[in-house]
Amino acid sequence: MASQLIELQGRSLQPSGVPAGVLDLFIRRLSALCPLQMHEAAAIAGLVRDVSRVSPHTTILEDGIPANEALILLSGLACHYKVLDTARRQMTGFVLPGDFCDYGFLSSSPVRQCVMTLGPTVMGRIDLKQLSALGDKLPNIVLAMMRGASAEQACARELVISLGARDAQQRMAHCLCELYTRLRVVGLVDRGQFELALTQAELGEALGLSTVHVNRTIQQLRKKKLVAMAQGKVRILDFPSLARIAAFDGRYLRS
Amino acid sequence: MASQLIELQGRSLQPSGVPAGVLDLFIRRLSALCPLQMHEAAAIAGLVRDVSRVSPHTTILEDGIPANEALILLSGLACHYKVLDTARRQMTGFVLPGDFCDYGFLSSSPVRQCVMTLGPTVMGRIDLKQLSALGDKLPNIVLAMMRGASAEQACARELVISLGARDAQQRMAHCLCELYTRLRVVGLVDRGQFELALTQAELGEALGLSTVHVNRTIQQLRKKKLVAMAQGKVRILDFPSLARIAAFDGRYLRS
DNA sequence: CGATATCTTGAATTCCTTCAATGGTAGTGG
DNA sequence: CCACTACCATTGAAGGAATTCAAGATATCG
Question: Which residue of A has its CA nearest to B34?
Answer without folding.
Answer: A107
